[in-house]
Design goal:
By secondary structure, the chain is an all-alpha fold. The chain has 14 helices and no strands. It has one domain. The radius of gyration is 20 Å and the shape is globular.
Length: 333
């Protein structure tokens, strides 16, 4: 994967500002929902955290298998523990950095490039971004159907439709541009010392259509795990868990995540979206805020476990070049 100069969101002060903004939105949302009621609801529903974290781990596992599918036969060069380390590191970084999914993919590519080569890892990371966006469109379909059925064709349905269409269009564009444009040559023209890497990037065939389909299936299964997680969270706060209501609630979380993507872990954005949409979801403001906080707490718990796992698992004993023996050139997250 190519080296990049520090973008705006990579600057420490910008990251701190995003975190402060998210925290401020979170505090305001909890205050508006009623801090005492939210804390009481959290205390009575905290027993569900292990199960919520387990379902989050299922999502991470599915995402790692989706990435593994993109490597095809080359993926067999990577030891199983390295796949576990890559999945854990990508998830942990994704929770603490703005635009966390992209930073997580970059970190996973850094680890995997030691066994597959830098160009192959870069291609897989780019294609994975497209797959992730397409999986958003896939899960949006049942969520949108449930939202229209329960709430009617109003603003929530319109926002979900727009988000799903934009995600799908960008995802397809990423995959098509990777296959048909000479991005590596362009990169080499802009940064002379990356010219050889750019040529290797263009030369890599990337995932086949079958591999892409399998990758999308795994990533979409991870989205299903998130729907189940939402149902568990609803049950924990004492709400009904009909499938339609679970899907509509998950839709609100999807919109909150999309709006707050520049905030680490979307902290505060999902809580604010849930509080604003509590009435439409048939929840009290306190219950809506509690649900979002429960899921965030489960993510933080899993993130800490993933960080520890990344350190505890031994890394590779040596480095190996990928196909063609190209030197792995990786970005800083």
């Amino acid at each position: 994967m190519s080296e990049r100069g520090p973008g705006l969101l990579a600057r420490p002060l910008v990251r701190i500002a995003c975190a402060v903004l998210g925290t401020a939105v979170l505090v305001a949302s909890v205050w508006a929902a009623g801090a005492r009621a939210v804390l009481e609801s959290l205390g009575s529903s905290a027993y569900a955290l292990p199960l919520l974290a387990l379902l989050e781990a299922v999502m991470v596992g599915c995402s790692t298998l989706a990435l593994r599918s993109l490597y095809g036969e080359v993926g067999a060069r990577v030891p199983p523990r390295q796949w576990v380390r890559a999945g854990a590191l990508g998830y942990a970084l994704g929770l603490v950095l703005p635009m966390g999914r992209g930073a997580g993919e970059a970190a996973r590519a850094v680890l995997l490039s030691r066994d597959t080569g830098g160009a192959r890892a870069a291609v897989a990371a780019v294609q994975m971004q497209g797959v992730v966006l397409l999986s958003t469109t896939v899960i949006t379909v049942p969520v949108l159907v449930a939202t229209v059925a329960l709430l009617g064709p109003g603003v929530p349905a319109g926002l979900l439709l727009a988000n799903g269409l934009v995600a799908g269009a960008i995802g397809i564009s990423i995959l098509l541009v990777r296959e048909r444009a000479r991005l590596g040559r362009l990169l080499g023209g802009l940064v002379k010392r990356l010219e050889s890497f750019g040529l290797a990037f263009d030369a890599v065939a990337g995932a086949s259509r079958g591999d892409l389909t399998r990758s999308l299936a795994w990533e979409s299964l991870g989205r299903v795990a998130q729907v189940v997680q939402c149902g568990v969270a609803l049950a924990a706060i004492g709400e009904h868990t009909e499938i339609g209501r679970v899907l509509v609630t998950r839709g609100a979380l999807i919109l909150g995540s999309a709006i707050g993507d520049f905030i680490p872990g979307q902290l505060g954005a999902t809580e604010a979206m849930m509080v604003v949409g509590a009435g439409a979801l048939g929840l009290t403001a306190a219950s809506a805020a509690t649900l979002a906080l429960l899921i965030h707490a489960a993510q933080i718990l899993l993130g800490l476990l993933c960080a520890g796992l990344t350190v505890a698992l031994p890394g590779p004993q040596g480095t190996s070049a990928g196909s063609g023996g190209e030197r792995a050139v990786t970005p800083t997250a």
